[in-house]
Design brief:
- By secondary structure, the chain is α/β, with parallel strands linked by helices.
- The longest helix is centred in the first third of the chain and has 18 residues.
- The N and C termini lie far apart (88 Å).
- Helix content is 33%, strand content 22%.
- The strands form six sheets. Strands 3, 4, 5, 6, 7, 8, 9, 10, 14 and 15 form a ten-stranded mixed β-sheet that branches. Strands 23-22-21-16-17-18-24 form a seven-stranded mixed β-sheet.
- The protein has three domains: 222 residues, 3-Layer(aba) Sandwich (Rossmann fold), CATH 3.40.50; 45 residues, no CATH class; 223 residues, 2-Layer Sandwich (Nucleotidyltransferase, domain 5).
- The chain has 20 helices and 26 strands.
C-alpha cells in the first residue's frame, strides 16, 4: 500500500509539472537561457550572455515591463543594438507570441535584415526553428518580408513603403534607424506615425524606436528621447565610487584614460569597464515609466577600444563631414548644424590660384561630370588628391543639337583626351558620370553603352536626405546600361562642407585662375547656387535645398564628379606611393587592369582601384 501511494504521488507531481504555466521570463532572462548567436551576424558566435554588455539588460527588461509602452534607444554604433532587436523578435516568436512589425529606412534594408540576420537566427535557435514554418513548404507563410509562427508573425518593411506601413494591426512595433526614415512615405505622411497607428487596437502594445542620431533640428530619435525618461548609462569610479556617464570631454588622449568627474583620478578603459554600472535618469526619480529612453555611446561598448576611438577622432576632425559622422556614430549625439548652410561664391572666386600647368603635382586621380541641357553639354574635370583634396581642372561647354551624333562624338573625344603635369606626364579621366534625367535620356544611354571599360556611366539623381551618394547600379532600362542612382542632397552636403574648408589639405577645394580653364564668376555663382533650409511637412521637420540663383550647373557637375570618385573608391595612399616611386602613370595602371579584365571576359563596374 505504501508503495502504491508513493507511485501515485510521483504521478501527480509529474502531471502538475506538465500543467503548470511556464516561468515568467523577461527578454534578457529568455536570451540568457535560449539565445544562440549566429556566426554570420556576430564575431562572438555561440551562447548569448547579457553580462558581456550589461547595459543591455535594463533596456530589454523595460520592454517586458507591463508599465512601459515605449522604449527609445539613442545610441552610437557598435553597442549591440541589432542583437537587442533580434532578442526582442526571438522572445515574441517563442515565449510571448504576437503580431510584430520591423520598420527600417528602406525595403531593401528590411530584405537584407531578413536574409542576413533573422534567417540565420531562426536556423541556429531550435526554439525558433521549430515554430517558424519552412519557406519551401507549399502553403508556407514564411517569405523574405514576413515570417509566420503560432500566435503571430513578423512583417518587415521599409519606411519608404506606404503599403507595407498600412497593411495590418500589430502589437509590437520595432522602428530601427528612425533618423534615416524619409520625411514622408510617398504621399501618406510621416512613416513613423503611420506605423504607430498599426498598434492602436492593442492595450498591451509595445513601441521600440532605435537610431544613431543625425541633425539636431530634424532628429526623430532626439525628439523621442527628450520626451522619455532620458536615462544615461553610469559607471562607478574605481577610486571614489561616484556614478557618472562615459563622457568624451573627460577622455585624456595622451594617457588614454577618463578623468573622474568627482575625485579627478585618471583611470584607464579596463579599470572603468570592470566596475558596476546602472541607468540614471537626467530627470532624477521623477519620470514616467510609460516611456523609457536610453542613451549610449561607444565608450561603453565592449567591442570598441578607446585607443581606436581616439585615432578615429583625430582623423575625423580634419573634415566636417567625417566629424559629423564621428559625433553621430561614436558619441551617439546629434549634430548641431547651421540653418541656411551654403557657400559664398565671391570668396571662392577671389581664392583662385595660378596652376601654370594643366594638372598640379598633388593630383592623383581625374574624374568628370557631364550635365545635359537642351542646347549644350557642360563638363567639369576635377582632380583629386590625398584626403579628397580637390582641384578644378577644366570647365567646358559644348553647344549643339543633342539629337545629332556629332556633339556626342565631340564629348567622347574630350573624355578620352589626356591632361598633363608640368613635367609632361599624361593623365586621363578615370571615371565619368553623365546625368540621364533630362530630355535626352535615350541619347545618354546610347552614349554610355559599351563604355564600362572606360568607366563612363549614366546617373540619375534621387532627392531626399539619408540616400547614399552613389546607390547600387541597375541595368533595368531600355538600353541595358549601368545606371547609378545619385543621392543629390547627400552630395550637396559634402560639396558645401568642402567649399567652406579654409585651410589647404583634406577636403580643401582649389580653383584655377587661368581664363582658358573656364572658371568664371558665372561658374562660381552656379556652384554656390543653393542653400539648405528647414521645412515642415505634415508636422515633420526636414532639410530642403533651395536655389538662390537661377543656374546651378556648377553644383550639379561637382556632384557628378564627386560621385565618379565614389564609384572608383581609390586608395590614395597607395596611389601616392606609386607616384613617389616613379612608377608609370595611374592612367596606364588602370588601363592595364581594364585590358586584363577584358581578356578574362568579366564585366566589372568598379571595386575600387589601387
Amino acid at each position: 500500500m505504501k508503495k502504491i501511494n508513493i507511485k501515485t504521488l510521483k504521478l501527480f507531481k509529474n502531471i502538475s509539472k506538465k500543467l503548470e504555466p511556464p516561468p515568467k521570463l523577461t527578454i534578457s532572462e529568455w536570451a540568457d537561457r535560449y539565445r544562440v548567436l549566429s556566426s554570420e551576424s556576430s564575431a562572438e558566435a555561440g551562447k548569448w550572455d547579457t553580462d558581456r554588455a550589461p547595459y543591455q539588460r535594463e533596456i530589454m527588461d523595460a520592454i517586458s515591463d507591463d508599465r512601459t509602452e515605449t522604449v527609445v534607444i539613442k545610441s552610437s554604433a557598435q553597442v549591440g543594438k541589432t542583437e537587442l532587436i533580434n532578442n526582442i523578435v526571438a522572445y515574441h516568436i517563442d515565449y510571448d507570441p504576437a503580431p510584430m512589425m520591423l520598420v527600417m529606412p528602406t525595403v531593401e534594408l528590411a530584405q537584407t535584415y531578413s536574409k542576413k540576420r533573422l534567417a540565420p537566427m531562426i536556423r541556429d535557435n531550435p526554439r525558433l526553428r521549430d515554430k517558424v514554418k519552412d519557406a519551401k513548404s507549399r502553403d508556407s507563410d514564411n517569405t523574405i518580408l514576413e515570417k509566420g509562427f503560432p500566435g503571430g508573425y513578423i512583417a518587415m518593411t521599409g519606411a519608404n513603403s506606404p503599403v507595407g506601413l498600412s497593411s495590418r494591426p500589430i502589437r509590437i512595433l520595432l522602428a530601427d534607424e528612425v533618423d534615416r526614415f524619409p520625411a514622408s512615405a510617398g504621399n501618406e505622411g510621416d512613416p513613423l506615425a503611420l506605423a504607430e497607428k498599426r498598434t492602436s487596437t492593442f492595450a498591451n502594445k509595445k513601441k521600440i524606436f532605435t537610431s544613431t542620431p543625425t541633425d539636431a533640428k530634424t532628429s526623430r530619435i532626439l525628439k523621442a528621447f527628450n520626451e522619455s525618461s532620458q536615462e544615461e548609462w553610469n559607471i562607478s569610479c574605481p577610486v571614489c565610487g561616484c556614478y557618472q556617464p562615459y563622457e568624451w570631454a573627460r577622455i585624456k588622449f595622451d594617457t588614454i584614460t577618463m578623468e573622474c568627474a568627482e575625485c579627478k583620478e585618471q583611470l584607464n578603459e579596463f579599470e572603468w569597464k570592470a566596475q558596476q554600472g546602472k541607468w540614471i535618469s537626467r530627470l532624477g526619480h521623477n519620470f514616467d515609466l510609460k516611456k523609457r529612453g536610453f542613451h549610449l555611446n561607444a565608450l561603453a561598448s565592449p567591442w570598441e577600444r578607446w585607443e581606436d576611438i581616439i585615432k578615429t577622432f583625430k582623423e575625423a576632425k580634419k573634415d566636417k563631414e567625417l566629424l559629423k559622422t564621428f559625433v553621430n556614430t561614436y558619441l551617439g549625439e546629434e549634430w548641431e548644424d547651421n540653418e541656411g548652410e551654403g557657400a559664398d561664391f565671391e570668396r571662392l572666386y577671389k581664392r583662385r590660384e595660378t596652376y601654370n600647368c594643366q594638372i598640379p603635382d598633388d593630383v592623383l586621380i581625374l574624374t568628370a561630370g557631364v550635365d545635359v541641357q537642351d542646347d549644350r553639354l557642360e563638363i567639369e574635370v576635377v582632380g583629386w588628391g590625398v584626403g579628397k583634396e580637390s582641384w578644378g581642372i577644366q570647365y567646358k561647354k559644348i553647344y549643339g543639337d543633342l539629337s545629332q551624333t556629332h556633339i556626342w562624338n565631340e564629348l567622347d573625344s574630350f573624355l578620352d583626351s589626356e591632361f598633363y603635369y608640368l613635367d609632361g606626364t599624361p593623365l586621363k579621366i578615370m571615371c565619368t558620370c553623365i546625368d540621364s534625367g533630362g530630355h535626352f535620356t535615350t541619347e545618354v544611354y546610347k552614349f554610355v553603352k559599351n563604355k564600362e571599360n572606360r568607366r563612363i556611366f549614366a546617373i540619375k539623381g534621387k532627392g531626399g536626405s539619408g540616400n547614399p551618394l552613389v546607390g547600387k547600379p541597375s541595368k533595368n532600362n531600355r538600353e541595358g546600361v549601368y545606371l547609378f542612382s545619385l543621392g543629390v542632397d547627400t552630395g550637396k552636403e559634402k560639396i558645401y562642407s568642402s567649399l567652406n574648408v579654409d585651410e589647404e589639405g583634406s577636403s580643401f577645394c582649389h580653383f584655377p585662375f587661368e581664363e582658358e580653364k573656364g572658371y568664371t564668376l558665372e561658374y562660381f555663382k552656379s556652384l554656390c547656387a543653393e542653400k539648405r533650409i528647414m521645412q515642415y511637412q505634415r508636422g515633420v521637420s526636414s532639410f530642403k535645398w533651395v536655389q538662390k540663383y537661377k543656374r546651378n550647373e556648377g553644383l550639379d557637375l561637382r556632384n557628378y564628379a564627386t560621385a565618379a570618385l565614389e564609384i572608383l573608391n581609390p586608395n590614395f595612399e597607395q596611389l601616392l606611393t606609386f607616384r613617389e616611386k616613379g612608377n608609370k602613370s595611374i592612367s596606364q595602371i588602370s588601363q592595364s587592369k581594364a585590358n586584363t579584365a577584358k581578356k578574362k571576359k568579366k564585366r566589372i563596374v568598379s571595386k575600387g582601384i589601387t
